[in-house]
C-alpha cells in the first residue's frame, strides 16, 4: 500500500513527538536522573545535593561509584575554597583568641582535604566502608572548625558558617553513596 504525500506528512509531527519521547525517556538518562534522586533523597540537604551533582557534567552518565567520586571531588573543591576563606579571615583577625581559632580551623581544613584524598583511594580500591570512615572524618574536621567558635563564644563570620555547612552537606553525599554501595 502506498501512502499519499499528504498522508505521510501527517505522520511527521507524530514521528517527532515519538522521537522526543524516546530521547526524554532514554533508559540511560532516566537511570541516572533516578539515581541522583535516590541518592539525594537520603542526603542531609536534598536540594543542595541535587544542585551540586547536576552541576557536574559527569553526573549524567555516572553510576553509583561515579556519583561517589563526584561528591568527593565537590567536597574537596569546597573544602579548598573554604580553607582559602579561613586563611584570609585569619589574616584580618586582630585578637589572640580569633587567631588561635583560625589556626585550628586551618589545620582542620588541611586535614579534611587530605582525608578526602584518602576517600578517593578507598573508593578506587572498592573499600566502601573505608570511604564511609574517611568521609565521616572529613566531616568531623570541618565541624570542629565551627565548634571552635561556639566553644570560645566568638561569633563565626556568616560566610564561614555557610561555607562549613556546605562542605558538610557535600561530605554527607559521600556517606550516602558509600552506604548505598555497601547495599544499605
Ligand atoms: C582540628 O584542629 C585542632 C588544632 O590543630 C586539632 O587539635 C584537632 O585534632 C583537629 N581535628 C579535630 C577533629 O578535632
UniProtKB/TrEMBL annotation:
Using the record, list the residue span of the signal peptide; answer none if the entry has no such feature. Answer: 1-31
Q: Which UniProt keywords apply?
A: Disulfide bond, Signal
All copies of domain Pectinesterase inhibitor, residue ranges: 31-177
Q: Which NCBIfam families match?
A: PME_inhib
Q: Name one GO molecular function term.
A: pectinesterase inhibitor activity
Give the family, as the similarity comment puts it.
Belongs to the PMEI family.
The record's section on InterPro entries has: Invertase/methylesterase_inhib, PCW_Enzyme_Inhibitor, Pectinesterase_inhib_dom, PMEI_plant
Question: Where does the source fall among the domains of life?
Answer: Eukaryota
Q: Which SUPFAM superfamilies match?
A: Plant invertase/pectin methylesterase inhibitor
Q: What is this protein called?
A: Pectinesterase inhibitor-like
Q: Name one Pfam family in it.
A: PMEI
- PANTHER family given for it? PECTINESTERASE INHIBITOR-LIKE, PLANT INVERTASE_PECTIN METHYLESTERASE INHIBITOR SUPERFAMILY PROTEIN
